[in-house]
């Protein structure tokens, strides 16, 4: 059995990752590829329970170190029960967020540090990395307009943090992509969904060309 491919979509709030995950899954299925679409935090009952704890936390909410631990625990369950079995069965896995979100949010903006997040990932998920991470980037002003239209005055505990926090998240993602060009494809998300989807399909061409 040929191992499947693991694709993660990353970026800040309101960059269209969920929409692009759906479009990509449909395009791969049209090519006859068996696809699993999932998300983080989530994907398994246990990880979805942790998602609720993270996004609707009790009291004043979690500190960044507690968040990093919770995300790592959710990811460990997700990798063990969903992602690895699908890859070993020859399926492609498309994940809306993965490790690099923890690196950007808790490690970067939260100040936990990249080394600590990577250490937790090594313990919990044996260091699994996607075959390709698609980093969708959208200008901050457009993101703010999208979020206002989508969420109004209601957002989750992490999405509702201030602009400086989200600016640091975006800067962290950009730094990772610059430092690790073999892991990332940067996607211009400042256009309509279909045009962004075409950028993604272009970025995936090397992996698709290797399909039997």
Explain what you see:
The chain is of the alpha/beta class and 212 residues long. The protein has a single domain, classed as Rossmann fold, CATH 3.40.50.300. It is built from 9 helices and 5 strands; from the N terminus they run βαβααβααβααβαα. It has helices at residues 17-30, 45-55, 64-88, 99-109, 114-125, 140-151, 163-179, 193-203, 205-209, and strands spanning 6-10, 35-39, 92-96, 132-137, 184-188. It has a 5-stranded parallel β-sheet, sandwiched between helices. α1 (17-30) packs across α8. The chain is globular. The termini are close together. 41% of the residues are buried.
Defining key terms:
212 residues, alpha/beta, Rossmann fold, 5-stranded parallel beta sheet, 5 strands, 12% strand, globular
Walk me through the topology.
Blueprint: E1 6-10, H1 17-30, E2 35-39, H2 45-55, H3 64-88, E3 92-96, H4 99-109, H5 114-125, E4 132-137, H6 140-151, H7 163-179, E5 184-188, H8 193-203, H9 205-209
Parallel strand pairs: 1-3, 1-4, 2-3, 4-5
What's the gist of this structure?
With 212 residues, the chain is α/β, with parallel strands linked by helices. The protein has a single domain (6-209), classed as 3-Layer(aba) Sandwich (Rossmann fold). The protein is built from nine helices and five strands.
